[in-house]
Write a structure and sequence with these properties.
By secondary structure, the protein is of the alpha+beta class. Helix content is 19%, strand content 30%. The structure holds 2,5-dihydroxybenzoic acid (GTQ). 2,5-dihydroxybenzoic acid (GTQ) binds next to strand 3 and strand 10.
């Protein structure tokens, strides 16, 4: 399609042009024609790399970090999952931050708030809680927990065992927009003003308050989408009919108020793949963070296959053909910036027959 080719130029012309560029540079001017191809490329060239973090490795490093400093000292004891293509940039994909957080028995990760939205996907432990704007939410493996932009949040572990989860934040997106603000609470733990389960009862039962007004702007008012419910729904789907060739059995986490994605900058969903199932190739403009809460299998991107097991975290690049294979029954949590791209009219996908 793109046939436009600049005619070759001789050395003298090139030198004259360069002299002109050098002359205008101090005036903060630059020639578009030297960079146009890169500014409006024919299609995305993904910069992020596909990568997998083995849970056993992350867990062992986390145990070491646990002996080095407390959650209070660290404010958040997190090992950042850094995409190898972006060293030092705290990015798991081109646009999303991810990390694994640990809160040990008796610890508190003190209350703060920030304009970045956060989500938690619980990996290990049972019953430590996160307080979000006056409501306590107990966490269990497989739960999807939201922390809306500018909501106070602290994490408290009063159980006997360590609690670990995957954090995903829109840090790179907010940084790009230069919209980062944050504050510390004057108390380590915020006071709890509503009973546990209040949000789920009001918003997460297929019912809505009669005068429903969104308490958290564009973010779903449900703080915790418990895994037992999500799992039950997915297994019912799997019983009811065949899996979609490209998506398997997939449900997205929705905002009950408007049916949109649960969060304004991060689009989370969950996929069940029965043992032996391989998805047909898809590529989409969003880079995706994945973790298996159950099951083993492999993913193939750009012709390279990598095996995964429970709690491994992996990333699949934007605009790169991908397939997922389940060796045993798999439940996969996935999240991307798809919601942002959809709002901007940018999201695209392409699908091939199996
Ligand atoms: O739990 O509030 O992984 O503020 C990074 C920044 C977690 C949190 C992260 C944060 C948090």
């Amino acid at each position: 399609m793109d046939q436009h080719q600049a005619a070759p130029v001789d050395a003298e012309t090139r030198a004259r042009r360069q002299a002109f560029y050098d002359k205008i540079a101090p005036r903060s001017l630059a020639p578009l024609w030297e960079v146009l191809r890169g500014l409006v490329p024919p299609e995305p060239k993904p910069k992020m790399a596909a990568h997998l973090w083995r849970w056993a490795e992350v867990r062992a490093c986390m145990a070491e970090a646990g002996a080095l400093l407390t959650a209070e000292e660290a404010e958040r004891r997190v090992l950042v999952l850094e995409n190898p293509a972006f060293p030092g940039q705290s990015r798991a994909t081109g646009t999303l931050y991810a990390g694994v957080q640990m809160v040990l028995p008796g610890e508190v990760a003190p209350a703060h708030r920030h304009t970045q939205s956060a989500l938690r996907f619980v990996l290990e432990g049972d019953g430590a809680y996160t307080n979000v704007n006056g409501e306590r939410t107990r966490m269990r493996p497989g739960d999807f927990v939201t922390t809306p932009s500018w909501a106070w949040h602290d994490h408290v572990n009063e159980t006997d065992g360590p609690m670990l989860w995957l954090d995903v934040l829109d840090v790179p997106i907010v940084a790009f927009l230069e919209g980062a603000f944050s504050e510390h609470h004057n108390a380590d733990r915020q006071s709890v003003s509503r009973p546990e389960g209040d949000a789920l009862a009001r918003w997460g039962s297929g019912l809505l308050p009669i005068d429903a007004k969104s308490p958290y702007g564009l973010t779903s008012p449900i703080f915790n989408y418990p895994y037992d419910r999500t799992r039950e729904a997915l297994l019912a789907l799997a019983k009811a009919g065949p899996a979609d060739p490209h998506w398997g059995h997939t449900l997205r986490y929705a905002n009950p108020i408007d049916g949109g994605w649960a969060m304004p900058t991060m689009a989370p969903w969950m996929t069940h793949l029965p043992a032996g199932f391989t998805t047909a190739p898809v590529r989409s403009t969003d880079g995706i963070i994945v973790t298996a809460i159950e099951g083993t299998g492999s993913f193939e991107v750009g012709g390279r296959r990598t095996a995964f097991g429970p709690k491994d975290v992996f990333v699949m690049p934007n605009w790169t053909w991908r397939t997922l294979t389940a060796d045993s029954d798999c439940t996969l949590f996935m999240v991307s910036d798809r919601v942002v791209q959809e709002k901007l009219g940018l999201w695209r996908d392409e699908r091939r027959a199996a």
